[in-house]
What we know:
The chain is an alpha/beta fold. Helices cover 41% and strands 12% of the residues.
Amino acid sequence: FPALSSTKHDTMRGELEAHIAQTECLLNDEQHVVVDKVMTSVEHGHGWMIAVDASGGTGKTFTLSHILNKVRAKGKVALATAASGIAATLLPKGVTFHSRTKCPLILTDESTCNISVHDTTAALIRMTNIMVVDEVSMMDGRALEAADRTFQWLQGSEEPFGGITMVFSGDWRQILTIVPHSSRIDIVGRCFKSSYLWRKVQIFRLTVNMRIMQGAGEEQDESDFAKFLLDLGEGKIPVNPEKGEFAIELREPLILPGEKLQDIVTWVYEDLHNNITNPKWLCERVILCPTNSEVDQVNFYMTTIFPGEEHVCCRVNTAESECDHLYPTEFLNTLCPSGMPPHRITLKVGMVIMLP
Ligand SMILES: Nc1ncnc2c1ncn2[C@@H]1O[C@H](COP(=O)(O)OP(=O)(O)OP(=O)(O)O)[C@@H](O)[C@H]1O
């Protein structure tokens, strides 16, 4: 933890306090209740486990960020973690839960985190007053149990997580933990809700969709869509068994006329040529696809219609061993393991790309 000069420290603390005062006024009643509960636990060292169970857009991340800032402004240690890297980037100084706790990737019912008593992570955990875990619904309950065991050992306490206040946040309607080749029962059994820890968690709900409240003139459409997503997550949309076991019918405003990829692209990026250099316009639209091969199709099509000269970048494609001849270049070029870019990427100046 690098030391800060006292002037720099005072300036940062001043900025943080101004920011906290701003967000404190914005909190709605339900968010206030959560913040007060968590602050009581931190200030009195109760070590409560608190869960914010709420649907998308109700301000879970907003509330967690406010709590983290508030605890840090009091000079206490607040660790921000999330199940995924992307979710972690939304929290102030957020990192993944696995990176922060050194939790193993392959879990058993007896797993513990890879922290030794003298390393810096152990020192950090002993100093910690609160840990936030966002998108907890995506996590295997055994990862949290491993952290519980390790924190108890490090803190020398039999309280859950060694007496550190824990705040969990997630939406159980969204993606649950991934258990390959498993049944619904296996997946539910692996969730945090099935863990012995969940029984001791105090649950709070946020019900007001703050994302819609921010909408600019399209509140009705957005609120209909939010209600549709909520009903979908709760299994209230009737299934059409003729189309498939889990098939549901989408209503009219959610369906675009046309069947080709070009129709979606034209609708989403209608005035692309005039807005290529407009980051605000680009940030307001995106095409999401359920599979990587569909993502590749969309990217390929977008690249062809994007104006400018193509620059082709190829990946290194030789094997690093004497069995080189076993892996012909053509074969290596077809491989696209998770976390690696495809062999051939075509870029144009001004294109938006996401780095892995
Ligand atoms: N009290 C509030 N006042 C103003 N804006 C708010 C408030 N609460 C949340 N927001 C805004 O509403 C939007 C949704 O909030 P947030 O991302 O925290 O929701 P979420 O529950 O984490 O959503 P998701 O589950 O989709 O990640 C954000 O733009 C956030 O800044």
